[in-house]
Amino acid sequence: MQENVKKHSHLYSIFTCKCPRCKQTNLFLNQNMYYLPDLFKMPERCSVCNLKYEMEIGFWWGAMYVAYAVSCALVIAFFLPLYLYFKFSVDMSLLIDICLMFLLFPVTFRLSRSLWIHMFAHQAVD
Ligand SMILES: [Zn+2]
Fold it and tell me: Helix, strand or coil for residue 52?
């Protein structure tokens, strides 16, 4: 690894989907998360530090738990202002909420994988 490369914080690395070890390369091949054909595509290893992203078979299944938690947090975060502040009905608030969750699926998916790999990167062996 180069010595003069600026290291980012863990939080920055999580939200920008960078490699959890070197924080330089992207976790996903295409940075445009709304280009759906490439939404799930990840390189096998980091090109800088050689960290294997899928650390074991089925590693990404665990990211679904993170996705569930992130989705629940977002649903509540959208529902409460719609219902309490904007005075939409419960049905309309939920309908808007569901539409927003569909639109935010790529964000939720990638953020969940990024959070998941950042939780386990310190245990990774090459
Ligand atoms: Zn790396």
Answer: strand
